[in-house]
Amino acid sequence: MLDTVTADVPHIDTPMKERYALRFGRVDRTLHGFLMLSFLGLALTGMPVLFSEAPWARTMARLLGGFTATHMAHRVFASIMMTVFLLHVGRLVVRVAVKKDYGIFWGPTSLVPQPKDLQDMYHHMRWFVGAGSKPSFDRYAYWEKFDYFAVFWGMAIIGGSGLLLWFPETFARVLPGWVFNIALLVHGEEALLAVGFIFTIHFFNSHLRPGKFPMDMVIFTGRISEHELAHERPAEYARVRETLVDAGPPSPRSWRIGRVVGTTAVLLGLTVVGLIIYAVASHR
Amino acid sequence: MRCRSVLATCVSVWLLALTWSVRAAPSGAGASDPQGPAKVAAAPAKTAAPVAPPGPTADDCLACHDDNDLKREKAGTSVTVKKDAFMASVHAPLACVDCHADLAHAELPHAEHLARVNCSSCHADEVTLYQKSAHAAARAGGSDVAATCASCHGMHDIRGSKDAQSRTYHLNVAATCASCHGNKDVIAKGHIAAGDVASPFADSIHGRALSKSGLMVAPTCSNCHGPHDIRKKGDPDSRVAMANVPATCGKCHEGIAHQFAGSVHATMLAKGRDGAPACQSCHTAHAIQHADNPDWQLTVVSQCGTCHQDKLKTYRDTFHGQVTKLGFRAVAACADCHGNHRILPASDPSSPIAAGNLVKTCGTCHPNATANFVKYDPHADKNNRERNGALFFAAKGMQALLFATFGFFGLHTLLWLLRALKDRGTPAMEKPHA
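C-alpha cells for the assembled complex are given below, as produced in the milestone run.
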C-alpha cells in the first residue's frame, strides 16, 4: 500500500521545479484531522441508536462494544470535537485581537459569504449546463464557505442538543422536560444532515469529483501547486502571484499519511451512507 | 381419601353393572369387570356378581411370563412381565387376574389378545377425570397416540408417585410428558398444536429448578395442567384457560396474584376482554425465565406492543426505546415506569405514572429529577400537533431543512458531475472568465 502511495508522489525531482503555495498551516491541518476523527467516531457510535430499528443496528452496536462502551466513546469523540471547535474559535480571536487581522470578516480571504459568492454560484451553475464559462474563484469558493458554516451551525445545534441530553437533570433546573424531546429529535435529524452532507456532498465537491479524484491532498499536505492554484482559484492566484512564497513540495510523509487517512475516512463515510440508505429503504 | 375411592369404586361398579344389565351387552371385557380386584369383591356388592372361585395367582402367571423371550405366536410381540419389576410395583399385592379379569377363569394357554385392562375398576375417580381430558377426547376422536393410563403410569411396573423411580414422581413428570410432547413423531401424528413444549420447559426457570436444583416445590407439568383432567387452553374449565391462569400461577405465586388482581389487566381479563393479558402473555407458558433476565425483560416490551401499538411506536422514537431496541437493558423499558403486575392507568393516583408520582418514578433512574424534568414526554409523537406542538413544528422544520439542503446540493452535485465528466481530458474548457 505504502509503496504504491509513494509512487503517486508528484514529480518532486523534476528539473523544472514547481512552486507550492501554503494553503493550510500545520495547526489547521491537525485540527481538521481531529475534526475528521471525532466526526467519524460520532457518526459510527451514534448511528446504531438513530437507526435502532435497522437490520444492521444490533450487530453494529455489539461490534462497537455494547452500550456502555459506545455511550462513553460518543462522549469522548464529542469532547474532542468541541475542543477542536474551541481551539479554532480561540485562534480566530487571537488573529483578530492580537494580530489585528480583520481580513477574516470581509474581503477575498474571508470565509464570510459575500455578494461575489452568489454571483459565483449563479455562474458556476450556468457553467454546469453549458450556458457560460466557469467563474473565477478566490481563496474560498461558495460551497467551501457553506461547508465551513455548516460546521458552526452543526456545532450549535448538534453540540447544544447533545449537551442537553448528556446532562438532562442539570438543564432541567431551568428548562422544561419537553425540551429534551425536541433535543433528541433535532440531534438525530441534524446529525443525519451533517453525516449525509459530509459523506456525499463534501466528499464529492472536495475529493471525488473528476479532476480531484480520488482525493484532494491539500488538507493533509497543506500545499497547493502554483499550476493548480492558477487553474482552480484564478482570482486568488492573480492576487498572490507576485508575492507567492514557495512553501516547498508536499513532504512524502504527509502525503502518505494523507492517503491512508483520507482513503480510510472516505471508505468509512461511504459505508455509513450505504448503511443509512439500507436502513431507510428497509424501514416499514 | 382411601374411603372416598373405595366408595367411588363401589358406586362405579354398581353403575357399570347397571349399565350392563340394562343394555344386555354382549359378553366381553365389560361384563367381567364387576368381578375385578379382590378388595372390591370384598366390598358389599349391590349387584348379583357371582362369587368366583379363586383364580390363578401372580406366581402362576409369572411362571410363564417372567421370560424375556416370551412372544405372541402370531404377532411376535413380547408378552414378558418381569417379576422383579412387578414385585416392586405398587400392584405387587394383586393377582394378575385382578386387572386381566378376562383371564380369571380362562383355560391355559389363554388367548393371545386380552381385553383392555380397566383401571377404573379400582381408580374410578381418576378415570372419570381422565374422561374429561384432552387426551381422552383425542382417543375418542380416533387418535392412537393420545395418552391413556399406561402411557404415563406404565403397565406392570407402576410405582406410587412418592417413589423416586416412578414415572409420576414429581421430578420425573416432565420427562414422562416429554416422551410424547417432546417427540416430533407423536406431535405430528397427534396434531399437537402447541408443538414441542418439552425443550422450552427444560430451559425454563421451572424446568431448571426441577432438573438442576431438584426442587420438589418447583412446578412440573401437572401442577399447571392437572394430572388426569388435562384440558386444552380453549376449554373454559381448563386450569390454563386465559381467565384461570392467574389463579393457577397464584397457587404458588400468591403474592403476585394479589398484586395482579388489582391491575387494569386483571379487570379486563375478568370482563373477558379479548387480548387482556394473563401471566403467560408476558412470561410465556413454558419458557418462563427468571424475572431478572434482561433478554426476557426486553421481549416483554414487544409483548406490551402487541396491544399498545401506538405507545410502542412512540417509545421507539425515544432514547429509551432506541437503546432497548438494540438489545441493551441500560435504560427504561415499559415496566420500569408502569410497574409490572399491578399496572394502573395514569388517572389512578396510586399508579407510578400518576402525575403526583412521576418525580419519584423518573427519579429511580434520574436521581435529580424535578417537576420540571418530568415534563419530558416518554411517548412524544412528532406527528401529534395537539399533544407535542413544539416537537411537531421542530420536526417539520428539520424535515424542510433536510429536504432543502439535500435537494439543492443533490442537484448541484449531479449537474457538476455531469459537466465534469463531459470536460474530462479537455481542461481548456475550464478556462475561467476574466
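Residues 24-49, 428-434 of chain B have pLDDT under 50 and may be disordered. Chain B touches chain A through 55 residues (CB under 8 Å). Further analysis is deferred to the final report.
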